[in-house]
Amino acid sequence: MTKVLEVLGLTKRFGGLIANHNITLDCAEGEVLGIIGPNGAGKTTLLNCINGQLRPDSGQVLLAGHNIAGSLPHVACKLGISRTFQIVQVVDSMTVLANVMVGAFVRSTKVSHAQAEAEEALDFVGIQALAEAPVSSLTLAQKRKVEFARALAAHPKVLLLDELLAGLTSTEIKEMTARIDQVRKRGVAILWIEHVMEAIMPVADRIFVLCFGEKLAEGKPAEVAHDKRCIEAYLGEDTDVES
Amino acid sequence: MLRSRGGYWLLLLVALVLPLVLTPSFFRHIMTMTLMYACMAQAWNIVGGYAGQIALGNVVFFGLGAYSAALGFVKFGLSPWLGLLIGIVVSATVAAVIGWASFKTSGIYFAIATLGIGELARTLFVSWRWAEGSVGIEMPILPSSLLNFQFHGARLPYYYMILGLLVLYFWIVTRIGNSRFGYYLRTISVSEIAAEAVGIDVLHYKMVAFVLAAVMTSVCGTFYNQYLLYIDPWSVFPSTISMMMLFITVFGGVGTAIGPVIGAAILIPLGELTRGALGGQGKGIDYLINSVLMVAITILEPRGVLQLLRWLSGRKERKHDQSA
After folding, report:
1. What is the ipTM for the molecules in this complex?
2. Lowest mean pLDDT segment, chosen from A88-92, B231-235, B288-292
3. Which domains, and CATH codes, for chain A?
4. Which residues of A are less than 8 Å from B179 in CB distance?
5. pLDDT tens digits for range B122-160
C-alpha cells in the first residue's frame, strides 16, 4: 500500500506550550489510523497542522510525497485533504443539500454537478430525506452527518475526522462506524480522532496514542490496549490494572 | 416558483407604468431615487448580505463614480460615458486596495475600518483644490441626448435608465445566488473556518465580492452626477448613504435578490415624503423614522420585510407541511 500521507518530525508550539512535539506518522490508501489520547494531548492541533489551519513550527506534512506544511486549508482541500470538526462547522441558514454542495464545488464549478455529488453523499450517509431541510432544524448527530457528507462530496484522498461520534447514540455510532469502514474500502486514507474506544478499536488498522503532545505508543489496536503506558495515561499511574 | 417569478414580472410592469401615471416631477424624482438606492443596496447586498462582511464605507465608490464623470467632463472634456468607465476602474482599484488592507480584520473591525475610509474620502475631496474642494462641481448644460447623458424637461429617460440598471443588478444578484460563487459567499458569511476547509479561498472571494459591489456602486454615482448635474463632497460622500445601503438591504431582506428592492421601495419614498411634508422644520425626521422602523423590524423579524410577506401569504407554513 502506498503512503498517501506522511507527517515527519512535526512540532507545534503555542508560546511556551509544546502542543505537538516531533510527531512522525503515516497513513496509507485505505487505511484507518486512529488517534487517541487524553484531553489536551494535542490531537486536534495535529489535524489542524495537517490541513493547514495551523502552521507547524517545524517538520513536514507530505501528501503523496509533496510537502504541504504551511499551505492554507483551502489549498490542502484542493489537493485532497478533507476534514470534519470537533465543533461542527455547518451553515445553519442553508439547507442540508446546499451545505453538502459546497463541499462538492471544490471539484466542479457546475451547480448541477455539485448537486448530483451532494445527493450521492447524502444518500451514502443516510440523510437524503433531510436534503431540503434547513440545517438549523437538525440535531447534533444529523449536523455531524452533514459535515461528514460534505467532506465526502469533495472526493478526498485523505479524510481527517475529529470526534465524529461525540454526542451520538449507540445505534448512530454503529451506523457511522460502518460508513467510515466503507469509505476506507474506497481507498481513502483516514485519520480519525475518537474518544469512543469501542467504536474505533474494531475499525482502526493502527492506533496512534498522543499524550502531552508526544507520541506515547503506536501499533495494532490490541497491542495499544494492553500497553502499560497507555493505560497509565488514561487511568493514572498508580492504578493497579492487573488485579 | 412560477408564482414568484410571475410576481417579479408584475413588479416590473408596475415600475414601467408608474411614472406615466404619477406625472408630477416630485414623484418622478422620488421614484428615480428609490430605484437608484435599490441599485446601491443590491450592490451592498453582495458583500454585506451574501458574504456577510459589514462594509460601512461603500459611499466611497458612489462618490468616486460621481467625481470621475464630473471631473472627466469639466477638466478634460471627456464624455460622461467615458467618465463612467473611469469611475469603474478607479472604484475597482480603490476597492482592491481597501479590501486587501481591511479584510485582514474581520467582523466589527472590518466595519470600523471601512467606516473610517468613508469619512476619509469626504475629507480628502473637501480639501482637494483641483477637484474644486467644498465648492463642488457644476456640470455645463448640454442638449438632451443619450450620448451626452443629459435629459432636461421630461426627466423620464433618467428613470428608465436606472430601472434598466436595477433589472441588470437584480439579474446579476440572482445569478450569483444560484452559482458556486453565491454558495461560497454564504458559507464564508457563517464560518470562515468551514469555508477554508472545504477549499474556499476566503480572502479571494471576499475581494471579488467587494470589488464587484464597488463597481456597481460607482455606476450609480455617475448616474447621480448626470441626474443632478451638481455635486459636492457632502452630497456624494456622506456616511448616511453607506448606512442607507445597509438599512435598505436589512430592512427588505438581507441575502436575497428582491430584499433590497422591497427595502428601497418602502424606506426611500417614506424618507422623501416626510422630508417634503415637514420642509425645513423636519430636518433629520426621515432618519428618525428609518431608525424606528429598523429597530422594529430587527425585533419583529430580523430576516426583513420579505420574510414578513412570506409569513403573511402563508408560504412558510406550506413549506413546513412539505418537509414534515
Report:
1. 0.90
2. B288-292
3. 31-47+72-235 (3.40.50.300)
4. 109, 111
5. 999 999 999 888 889 999 888 888 888 888 877 899 999
Structure confidence at residue B306 (pLDDT) = 87
Query: Do the Cβ atoms of A51 and A160 come closer than 8 Å?
Result: yes
Helix (H), strand (E) at residue B129: none
Of B183, B199, B202, which has the smallest distance from its Cβ to A78's Cβ?
B199
Dihedral angle, C-alpha B295, B298, B299, B300, nearest 10 °: 110
Question: Domain for residue B266, yes or no?
Answer: no
| pLDDT tens, position by position, A18-54 | 999 999 999 999 999 999 988 889 999 999 999 999 9
Asked whether residue B207 is domain-assigned, the answer is yes
Task: Report the predicted TM-score, pTM, of the whole model to 2 decimal places.
Answer: 0.90
User: B202 and A90 in contact by Cβ < 8 A?
Assistant: no
Q: Decide if B183 touches A, using CB distance below 8 A.
A: yes
Residues of chain A below pLDDT 50: 243
Hey, what's the cell of B169? 443588478
Question: Cβ of B190 and A111 within 8 Å?
Answer: no
Q: Residue B141: which domain range?
A: 25-261
Render A155-204 in DSSP notation, one character per residue. --SEEEEESTTTT--HHHHHHHHHHHHHHHHTT-EEEEE-S-HHHHHHH-
Q: Report d(CA B161, CA B169) in Å as an integer.
A: 12
Question: Is there a contact between A98 and B183 if contact means CB atoms under 8 Å apart?
Answer: yes
In chain B, the number of structural domains is 1
How many angstroms from the chain centroid is the CA of residue B309?
22
The confidence score (pLDDT) of residue B1 equals: 39
Mind giving me the DSSP string for A45-97?
HHHHHHTTSS--SEEEEEETTEE-TT--HHHHHHHTEEE--SS----TTSBHH
B268 part of a folded domain:
no
In a domain, B5, yes or no: no
Each residue of B232-266: b (16+ CB within 10 Å) or e? bbeebbbeebbbbbbbbbbbbbbbbbbbbbbbbbb
